[in-house]
């Protein structure tokens, strides 16, 4: 199940967001797994970033995996259906809005890239290893070019 929480003023189509995320989970090989997406405020994301990463600044996205990957992209086999929860993704809508304005990108085109980025982190990929960085970047960038993940309706 895909759990969405939107406390921000930007109106998003729940159906579209869930479909985009479901397509990404399927592409990653985790179609039947759960994930939570929280569209949050900048201050809240900055607080999480400081508390969990030791960085006192805002960021566009934070991912908190519930399961430790065996290696990037490979999770242990779940013991039950309730163990199939990848984790939570937090997206700072204010930060993303600023980024989109600065780069002249529509937010509805940027969000699927961030969903992919967050899912990669939930699957154990990070930015520390060049191979992981390339995987995260390519998986995220591919969202812009695939007809399976429409930006909006």
UniProtKB/TrEMBL annotation:
Signal peptide: none annotated. Its cofactor is Zn(2+). It comes from the Eukaryota. Pfam families: YbeY. Belongs to the endoribonuclease YbeY family. Keywords: Endonuclease, Hydrolase, Metal-binding, Nuclease, Zinc. PANTHER family: ENDORIBONUCLEASE YBEY, CHLOROPLASTIC. GO terms for biological process: rRNA processing. GO terms for molecular function: endonuclease activity; metal ion binding; metalloendopeptidase activity. This is Uncharacterized protein. The keyword Zinc applies. The keyword Nuclease applies. InterPro entries: MetalPrtase_cat_dom_sf_prd, YbeY, YbeY_CS.
């Amino acid at each position: 199940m895909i759990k969405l929480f939107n406390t921000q003023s930007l109106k998003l189509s729940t159906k579209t967001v869930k479909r985009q995320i479901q397509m990404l989970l399927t592409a990653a090989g985790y179609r039947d797994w759960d994930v939570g997406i929280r569209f949050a405020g900048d201050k809240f994301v900055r607080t999480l970033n400081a508390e969990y990463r030791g960085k006192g600044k805002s960021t566009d996205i934070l991912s908190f995996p519930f399961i430790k990957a065996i290696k990037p992209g490979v999770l242990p086999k779940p013991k039950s259906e309730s163990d199939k929860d990848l984790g939570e993704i937090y997206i700072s809508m204010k930060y993303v809005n600023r980024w989109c304005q600065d780069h002249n990108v529509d937010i509805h085109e940027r969000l699927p890239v961030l969903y992919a980025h967050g899912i990669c982190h939930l699957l154990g990929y990070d930015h520390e290893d060049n191979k992981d960085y390339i995987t995260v970047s390519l998986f995220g960038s591919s969202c812009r070019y695939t007809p399976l993940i429409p930006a909006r309706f």
